[in-house]
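Protocol step 4 of 6: structure prediction from sequence.
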Amino acid sequence: MKLSEYANFDGIGLANLVRRREVTPIELVECAISAIEKLDPKLNAVTRRLDAMARKTAKGDLPRGTFTGVPFLLKDLTHSLAGVPTDCGSRFFKGWTRNYDSEMVKRWKDAGFIITAKTNTPEAGSSGSCEPVATGATHNPWKLGYSPGGSSGGSAAGVAAGITPVAHANDGGGSIRIPASACGLVGLKPSRGRTSYAPDWGELWNGMAIEGVVSRTVRDTAAALDVMWQPTVGDPYIAPPPARPYLSEVGAPVEKLRIGFSTKAPRGSAVHAECAKGTKKVAKLLEGLGHHVEEAAPKFDIERLEKAWGTIFQANEAWAFIDHAEATGREISNKLVEKNNLHLIELGRKLSAIDILKAVYDMHAVTREFARFFQKYDIWLSPTLGHPPPKHGHLFADENAERFFDRLMCFIPFTPIFNATGNPAITLPLHWSADGLPVGIHFGGAYGSESLLLRLAAQIEEAEPWNHKRPAVGLW
């Protein structure tokens, strides 16, 4: 199989070729390895190649799953691949190795995915860009020298360039949706409790973090969620199960929806003209598809929510570093830790148990305010980000920490809201700026409404397809 041919298939398309014996898993793995060799010197999306492991798996007896034989990229954060370090984009965590597969890794393997490499991430996943000191900046395939977003920046760059059709991503403040928007991909953040952190944790970031993927098609995202969503024994809570497989929603009829749209950031920060333009364009598209669309936005205490989100963020980042320091004896200093994380650790150390409990209760209170919007509307439509992907350096995390976080929150004024409330949201690649950078459009729904979001996303994908658009760096 030629690389250009390989890159034109999504994950389900490649799995169908394997199923029909038109191509073998080892051929697909060799394509992915060749793609890394060809593209990664420009992108720096991959931090650890797993060529031998992937080839051995591809030649073995693979499970018969939705994605049998399809190469897959694993983000180098959170989840464990047995015997392989999880460096978390960090000098401080470098070499952290567990001897078991995390539950999500088991499920991706059971679905037939072949893990081919691990991808770059900002240190401890704490940035909306992917520019870690430890492993260097990942480039956006649409324009070198620009950010691919974060924290799943390596995964998004790899999928956008065609290295694999699907890759692991996770999201505590937008880290699935930010890079999906920046790289022209589909990125769904599931509802709180939809995916498991077994066996290591019951939840992360007090329930704000969740697992998922980035992909080029809605059907790959839907099928991947079918693989991931089932609860695991011991999970502290679970989201309500879907009525039918998520993949069944792709192509299913879409009822007339009530959609409120807004181009204004709830926090009052500026929204780039291209982001507003793209949102208004999609609002008109949705009207043309028969939906009721009007300008409207949820009413909630954004300052209370952002403060609660920030407190939980600070406490959890501080815990992660301090816990690892106690386990390894490593010193928390700028020799091993970037300035933004040193800032978070310092703030987190000062928090009391009462501060953290107050943040959780405030988060729940604002969630109730936010949820009332979805009693009237089915969807909240907005830009995914406050502005298109910035140049490298704009969100470099080892400089002035306060400036970094001011810039970060202006870049991501919409995404953390859905982490704090636990609602699902999806970004779709529906607009490009005048200089050719992707601008994602964001669709949020009521808690547990992934089926509706996927059904609508598939309708939009058919009406306004995006797969003919290709980045400057890729296999096409």
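Step 5 (inspection) to follow. The longest strand covers residues 425-432.
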